[in-house]
Amino acid sequence: MKDRITELDLKEAPFLNKERIAEDVGNSLILAPHPDDESLGCGGLIAMLRSSGKNVIVIYITSGSASHLNSSLYPPQKLAKLREKEATNACLELGVLQENIHFLGFQDGQLIKLDSVKIIETVDNIVCITANKSLKSIFFPWRRDPHPDHIVTNTIGKLVTKRYNNELIQLEYPIWLWKNGKCDDWPFQSEINPVRLNISDYYKIKKRAIEKHKSQLGKIINDDPNGFVLTDDLLKPFDGNYEYFFTENKRNQKALEKDYFDKIYHNSNDPWNFKNSTYEIEKYKNSISALNKTDFKKGLEIGCSIGVQTNLLAKICNSLIAVDISEKAICEAKKICNENTNIEFKVTNILRDFPSGTFDLITLCEVGYYFEKDSLLELYQKIDSALVKYGRFLVVHWIGFVPDYPLSGNDVHNKLKKFMIEKENYKMLANQRTEYYRLEVWVKTH
């Protein structure tokens, strides 16, 4: 499986940003082939989104009526009603509004028999249900999840995405891949990007939601020994602090421009929670420490945002130029840094108007992935020209999944490493990698 994503790869996949899940994922549609798939595959995500105030719509394609075909106490029609009730209770446990729970009522195990006309009618129905819900993301089973109902639901999900002009973030969740997947069922490395979500704060809620599916846990129907039961072994992949998703690599190839940031800052003065985020505070502390120097003559901070890190850099620089493309961000930064007299703020596009002069410290933190690859390399060239001998270059980036950015954090650092090797006049002074970010300090040797 050298060319395939493996279970080990999933365990080391980049994270979805749980602190920004509401902004990154937004209002979401969950397509579930059967009752219980929503809780197993997405329960923590759903609970997290709901706690962040985002709408989640759950649509069940079937009602799971074929799980106990030999039960006389629960024939298919009665079982369908039971499973719909259990699914509703599970969704309510996760925080989904009653009005956002829908059952399409197709026959369990028979989706493969739907013709193209019925598929399109189903897509039309889903689009009608989700109209005016301001959807940003859609979740449905992995395209080769080894169950025909899951594969057909994936097809339906992709058609729904097309009806939204492919503007929805599309994430696929594995269910049966874990236990029943063969080599050919797993994704090719070139096919998708795996991501994971830390749901430890919502694990108990997810577990309670799963427990609502009592008929699948063998707690209700006892007259069909051959009926389907979610055993402890089958539940094992879903009993933990992480949920896993696959997303196609369809990044926006254009660099993000001023309008993008104007919109971000229009909605919030501190859109990334720089002031209070544990992630940011820890990262700033590590960044200053990694520089291993406190007497820089002249520093340049590229992408200062609202100035939280700027304050810290000002303490180790005699003078500091802090630039950002957003005028509003610079206004906030001036307020936060009003006690520092050694900072010069500039509203500028760094590629078009790189500050003149030379610097013995340049920082590029949480900015590089806003550029496309050619403009990023152009920026590296400008930084190299402006950095004096023995000057230090600090680079820090979030390495989790962010759908809007042209590059990932790993892309930024990997391209930088290649650039530095080709220049042959840099030495890596610090190299840190946490679950959430990469931090590097390079020193110019000659």
UniProtKB/TrEMBL annotation:
Q: Which Pfam families match?
A: NodS, PIG-L
Source organism superkingdom: Bacteria
Which InterPro entries has this protein been placed in?
GlcNAc_PI_deacetylase-related, LmbE-like_dom_sf, SAM-dependent_MTases_sf, SAM-MeTfrase_NodS-like
What the entry lists under PANTHER family is as follows:
BLR3841 PROTEIN (PTHR12993:SF29), N-ACETYLGLUCOSAMINYL-PHOSPHATIDYLINOSITOL DE-N-ACETYLASE-RELATED (PTHR12993)
Q: What protein name does the entry list? A: PIG-L family deacetylase
Tell me the organism. Answer: Mesonia ostreae
